[in-house]
Design a protein that fits this description.
Blueprint: H1 2-17, H2 21-25, E1 28-36, E2 40-43, H3 45-55, E3 62-70, E4 73-83, E5 89-101, E6 104-113
Parallel strand pairs: 1-6
Antiparallel strand pairs: 1-2, 3-4, 4-5, 5-6
Length: about 120
């Protein structure tokens, strides 16, 4: 199951990469919970759809350096560009912890931090 869960996330990410938010959402449960730890929490596919319409109007720039899967969980580690208050993109480290249910993305806990200059 772990490898198939990784595949689901990779296919879902490919949809985001191509700007296909609806394609991404097709990999999600209707009751998905999307939490950016310390920032926001969305519940349900419709809330995620509305947020993505603005936040992902341009696909995010990110890399996935490592994927680790165990049971219903897949953890992605990498870097993502996050805009600061002035709209300038700043490279951040992230860890996304995904929980899958019946082959679909059911929960995300995203940890995004701005690394110190010597950590980049």
């Amino acid at each position: 199951m772990s490898e198939s869960n990784k595949a689901v996330l990779l296919y879902a990410n490919a949809a985001i990469d191509s700007g296909d938010n609806e394609g991404f959402l097709s990999f999600c449960t209707d009751d998905i919970e999307w939490t950016a730890v310390g920032e926001m929490r969305l519940k349900g596919k419709e809330a995620l759809r509305e947020w993505m319409a603005t936040a992902y109007s341009t696909p995010p720039e990110y890399t996935v350096d490592d994927l680790v899967a165990e049971g219903d969980f897949v953890v992605a580690l990498g870097y993502i560009m996050v805009k600061n208050d002035e709209g300038q993109p700043i490279r951040h480290a992230y860890s996304d912890v995904w929980r899958l249910r019946e082959g679909k993305l059911a929960e995300l806990r995203a940890f995004v931090v701005k690394p110190e200059a010597n950590e980049l």
